[in-house]
Amino acid sequence: MTAAAHWAQALAEWALPDEVLTAAPESPYGFDPHVFVEVARAALDDLPTPTHRRVAEALHPGGALLDVGCGGGAASLPVAPPARRIVAVDQDSRMLDALVDLAADRAEVVPVVGRWPDVAERVGTVEVAVCANVAYNVPDLPEFVDALTRLARHRVVLELSAVHPQSSVTPLWRRFWDLDRPTGPTGEDAEAVVREATGAEISAERWTRTRSFMGDRGADTVAWLRRRLCLPASADLQVAEAMRDLPELAPSDMVTLWWPGRA
After folding, report:
1. For 131-143, b where at least 16 C-beta lie within 10 A, e where not — what string?
2. Verdict on whether the full-model pTM lies above 0.90
3. How far, in whole angstroms, is CA 36 from its chain's centroid?
4. Which alpha helices (H) appear in the chain, and where do they start and end?
5. Rounded to whole angstroms, how far apart are CA atoms 105 and 84?
6. How far apart are CA 163 and CA 208, in angstroms?
7. What is the pLDDT of residue 252?
8. DSSP secondary structure string, 79-130?
9. Does residue 142 carry a pLDDT above 90?
10. Does the domain at residues 3-17+31-214+249-260 carry the CATH identifier 3.50.50.60?
11. Please, are residues 184 and 232 in contact by the beta-carbon 8 Å criterion?
């Protein structure tokens, strides 16, 4: 089996059973944009991550940066400058509006609404392309990274957690639904796909993040996790209690991959 086929098959195993989805009182998917705005604000206050450093070292002052699945800009705003132009791609126009506001006088933001790589033809060449915490939502990862590679002149930087972002809450699926969750794919699997798809020499850095959107265990996080578990609002107290037994709500072990662009 190819690395790409293994990746797609492993992701497909995360699909929720029909009986669970049917029981959900509201959609278990998606995030409120303000979550990503707060993550971006925190990234501006924190020390640069390995992802930021690998992006910045490949950018010339005033260079253009492509941020795919940008959210509030947590991967791109901390490197503006040296980036003075951020081409921001996201399916949610509210995310792009928030990024434009956050950028203020840091950088010019060119918003592109749509799904990558469907909108790749609307994006010109850039010095560096970055994509953070999106890969586990991409079954066709080879096509995704190939489009990034074709538009970046100097470098592509891909950040993802070392394991699937929902792995940390597997015990809650067992508790509330008696449902086992998959164990793959992993960051190593993503690295294999990128190597297979691009033929490039891939560099990798493992690191530990100190903060994530799931770091706060307050009411908003409880409500989000309860929705993700396809449970009614009446289960909030049970979810909050169950959360106390989890060492982390989102994986803290991260992987940053980077390789040469070929624009």
Report:
1. bbbbbbebeebbe
2. yes
3. 11
4. 3-12, 18-23, 33-45, 50-56, 93-103, 141-151, 170-177, 187-198, 219-228, 236-243
5. 9
6. 12
7. 92
8. GTTT--EEEEEES-HHHHHHHHHHHTTT-EEEEEES-TTTTGGG---EEEEE
9. yes
10. no
11. no
Dig out the tokens for 102 from the structure.
Answer: 């956050």
The pLDDT tens digits for 25-61 are: 999 987 777 788 888 999 999 999 999 999 999 999 9
- C-beta of residue 62 within 8 angstroms of C-beta of residue 124: no
pLDDT score for 175: 96
* pLDDT for residue 215: 56
* Element housing 64 (H / E): strand 64-68
Q: Find, among 155, 154, 157, the residue nearest to 134 by Cα.
A: 157
pLDDT digits (tens, 9 = 90+) for 89-100: 999 999 999 999
On whether the CB atoms of residues 148 and 263 are closer than 8 A, the answer is: no
Q: Does the pLDDT value for residue 199 go beyond 70?
A: yes
List strands edge to edge, sheet with 253-260. 108-113, 85-90, 64-68, 126-132, 152-161, 253-260, 203-208
